[in-house]
Amino acid sequence: MPGTCDNASHHGIRETTDMTLRLGLLGLTMLFSLAGHAQNLEKGKEINATCAGCHGEFGQGGSRGEYPRLAGLGAKYLESQLKAFRARTRVNIPMYPYTQERELPDEDIRDVAAYLASIELPTKWPVFKDSDDALTRLTMTERVMIIPRVPGNLANGEALYQKQCVTCHGKTGLGRGMFPMLAGQYTSYLKRQMEKYVKGERPHDEEGIGGLLNKLKEEDMQDILAYITTLQEQQ
Hints:
Blueprint: H1 2-36, H2 41-55, H3 75-87, H4 106-118, H5 134-142, H6 154-164, H7 166-169, H8 187-199, H9 218-231
Helix pairs in contact: 2-4, 3-4, 6-9, 8-9
């Protein structure tokens, strides 16, 4: 039976070789697929020039929170909100015309979301070198994002945040997946959004009115906001 064993052995080798080749080809296909789906950050930067009029060149927002910070928010979250503006499931009349398919197709949404998500804003004032010119110093300063502390009971705010918010927004308030970063966002903007959630003017993660925020007192929400302003210092 030696011949039978040799044939079986050769057959097994061929199967192993074929499997290795198939796995190799599959790996290459996945690699090229991922490369093909990589977002164009340069194009995203160009698109952001339109957004910069309100949200700032570096996505830092402005007007004391009238326009929220976008820099550092998760790409998937930004994508979902731009599409929500388009569909009017999140009502924002000024944003509606900018998000229409003819103005901002899905690929552009992905590019600008990826670009904004890639921006890091320091939370400490820069240390300049003697060789830094005036423009460099100005640019470095404009990127700094420091949210002032707001009054509130920090102990109560931390306890409520850990109980109600940490699962979605993370221990350090940097967000997770489809849930946005809170640390480093304008307090006035966060407060305005909390009020909209409570009134049912903006959908939260719950269906309809009566979610987590509706169970909190106004002073509890203020305490949470006060605590969130301390999280920026932990980044």
